[in-house]
């Protein structure tokens, strides 16, 4: 006997994980997707020219293990671990910057592949039924018997379903959220940054003679070409290619309105990337691939009693610069199900508690993601950033778990919530600032003492007296 029927809108990554989690806990799940099945041949052909890579880190892996260890192993069998950033300068020099303190890695995986794998898992569950080409058009949260009545449009016709609860995992432009807003006094904000992204591609090494040298650059690094106002990144694929993305102001993209300007821009700013990609590949990407907007959304509360809740990008879309969008969405599911079990499957109590307790963590990672754009395109080459990174490493080794770099807490420690990571980082930053000030002040005092001794010399005294008379 099931605990009830849950409708999940959105069969993307977070929606699939939510479906698997609810099914595991004894619920019947109806999973709805407004688009066709992404595994169908026509959909694969339609998006074959696009390859979006994601970085799966500890929070995402923890959630997959929470659902099924075998599922987590399937995912990890198809990733490429990235232990460090590789920073490329204008001359083509490369400098590696470790992510973790002990060789930890984030993991590159193709988004489309991961979505197909999760849908395959969904298909083998008897208590999950998936409906494609079903668009949510109406909702009644006060239906007879305390149930939720949902109307979907399928092939131009309305189809009605009655469920016990609705979970919205339908992305940054969530339809579920709009339905929820009509019934809840929701605070909501949406912010676009004045930058866009464009997907690019680095083909496999043409000189490859073995499986080991099929990548033109290191596959175990996330490659970054930081250029202050804009940047380029690249993540490795299993076939030897790299999925690359250019982030730049909209105006920059608009000014690259001819082939000569595009190639000239790469010759000036990314000469080594130009060699890796090739002129034809770059031009093809600029002509064929769309420019994408970068948006973050914040809202609260996330629920209407026990009738409806939103998770993932539907509740907290963020810019991609901390690599936490998917990981955070997966963690939403784990946190929600843990609260559900703690509350003995009282849905209303669970949704209310989730909204109250999860909000501070989601606001923290949204802001961290925005701030990390500055770090990636600018700070990674600054002396201040590199000094702080060295100080963090030293103090972390001395004080162990009492001192952890922010990146470690966010990417490798799912036991530390985002808001707690920010709180600890604020304290650590203040301590580092005090240490730096102490060192600077000590140096100044030392110089003053040296100068005071030197001024006892008649020659120095005469020199100084002449200087100050000027």
From TrEMBL:
Q: What is its main location?
A: mitochondrion
Provide the FAD-binding domain boundaries. 5-341
Q: What class of enzyme is it?
A: oxidoreductase
Extract the HAMAP family matched here.
Kynurenine_monooxygenase
Protein family per UniProt? Belongs to the aromatic-ring hydroxylase family. KMO subfamily.
A GO term for molecular function: kynurenine 3-monooxygenase activity
Species for this entry: Nadsonia fulvescens var. elongata DSM 6958
- This protein is called Kynurenine 3-monooxygenase
Entries under Pfam families matching the protein: FAD_binding_3
- Highest taxon of the source? Eukaryota
Catalytic activity, EC: 1.14.13.9
What biological-process GO terms show up in the record?
'de novo' NAD+ biosynthetic process from L-tryptophan; anthranilate metabolic process; kynurenine metabolic process; L-tryptophan catabolic process; quinolinate biosynthetic process
Report the function annotation for this chain. Catalyzes the hydroxylation of L-kynurenine (L-Kyn) to form 3-hydroxy-L-kynurenine (L-3OHKyn). Required for synthesis of quinolinic acid.
| Pathway listed | Cofactor biosynthesis; NAD(+) biosynthesis; quinolinate from L-kynurenine: step 1/3
Compartments where located:
Mitochondrion outer membrane
Lipoprotein keyword on record: no
Question: Which cofactor does the UniProt annotation name?
Answer: FAD
Cellular component (GO) terms are:
mitochondrial outer membrane
Reactions mediated catalytically: L-kynurenine + NADPH + O2 + H(+) = 3-hydroxy-L-kynurenine + NADP(+) + H2O
Show the InterPro entries listed in the entry.
FAD-bd (IPR002938), FAD/NAD-bd_sf (IPR036188), Kynurenine_monooxygenase (IPR027545)
Alphabetized UniProt keyword annotations: FAD, Flavoprotein, Membrane, Mitochondrion, Mitochondrion outer membrane, Monooxygenase, NADP, Oxidoreductase, Pyridine nucleotide biosynthesis
This protein's record includes keyword Glycosyltransferase: no
Q: Which taxonomic lineage does the organism of this UniProt entry have?
A: Eukaryota, Fungi, Dikarya, Ascomycota, Saccharomycotina
């Amino acid at each position: 006997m099931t605990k009830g029927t849950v409708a999940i809108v959105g069969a993307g990554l977070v929606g699939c994980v939510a479906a698997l989690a609810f099914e595991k806990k004894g619920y019947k799940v109806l999973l709805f997707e407004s688009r066709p099945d992404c595994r169908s041949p026509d959909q694969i052909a339609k998006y074959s020219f696009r390859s979006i890579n994601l970085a799966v880190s500890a929070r995402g892996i923890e959630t997959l293990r929470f659902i099924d260890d075998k599922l987590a192993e399937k995912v990890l069998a198809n990733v490429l671990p990235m232990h460090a950033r590789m920073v490329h300068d204008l001359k083509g020099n490369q400098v590696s910057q470790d992510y973790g303190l002990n060789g930890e890695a984030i993991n590159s995986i193709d988004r489309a592949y991961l979505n197909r794998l999760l849908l395959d898992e969904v298909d083998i569950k008897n208590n999950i039924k998936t409906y494609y080409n079903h668009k949510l058009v109406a909702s009644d949260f006060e239906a007879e018997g305390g149930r939720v009545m949902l109307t979907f449009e399928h092939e131009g016709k309305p189809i009605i379903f009655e469920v016990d609860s609705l979970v919205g995992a339908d992305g940054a432009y969530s339809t579920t959220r709009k339905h929820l807003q009509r019934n809840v006094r929701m605070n909501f904000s949406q912010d676009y940054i004045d930058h866009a992204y464009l997907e690019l591609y680095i083909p496999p090494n043409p000189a490859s003679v073995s499986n080991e040298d099929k990548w033109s650059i290191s596959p175990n690094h996330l490659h970054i070409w930081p250029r202050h106002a804009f940047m380029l990144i690249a993540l490795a694929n299993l076939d030897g290619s790299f999925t690359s993305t250019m982030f730049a102001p909209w105006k920059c993209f608009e000014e690259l309105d001819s082939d000569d300007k595009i190639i000239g821009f790469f010759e000036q700013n990314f000469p080594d990337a130009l060699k890796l990609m090739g002129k034809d590949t770059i031009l093809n990407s600029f002509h064929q691939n769309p420019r994408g907007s970068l948006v973050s959304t914040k809202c609260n509360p996330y629920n209407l009693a026990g009738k409806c809740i939103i998770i993932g990008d539907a509740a907290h879309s963020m810019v991609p610069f901390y690599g936490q969008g998917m990981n955070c969405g997966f963690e939403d599911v784990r946190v929600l199900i843990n609260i559900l079990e703690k509350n003995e499957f009282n849905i209303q109590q669970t949704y209310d508690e989730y909204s109250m307790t999860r909000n501070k963590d989601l606001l923290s990672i949204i802001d961290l993601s925005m701030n990390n754009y500055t770090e990636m395109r600018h700070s990674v080459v600054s002396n201040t950033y590199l000094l702080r990174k060295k100080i963090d490493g030293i103090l972390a080794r001395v004080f162990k778990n009492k001192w952890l770099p922010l990146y470690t807490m966010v990417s490798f420690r799912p036991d530390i919530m985002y808001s707690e990571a920010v709180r600890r980082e604020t304290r650590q930053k203040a301590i580092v600032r005090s240490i730096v000030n102490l060192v600077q002040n000590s140096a100044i005092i030392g110089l003053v003492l040296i100068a005071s001794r030197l001024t006892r010399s008649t020659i120095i005294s005469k020199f100084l007296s002449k200087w100050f008379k000027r």
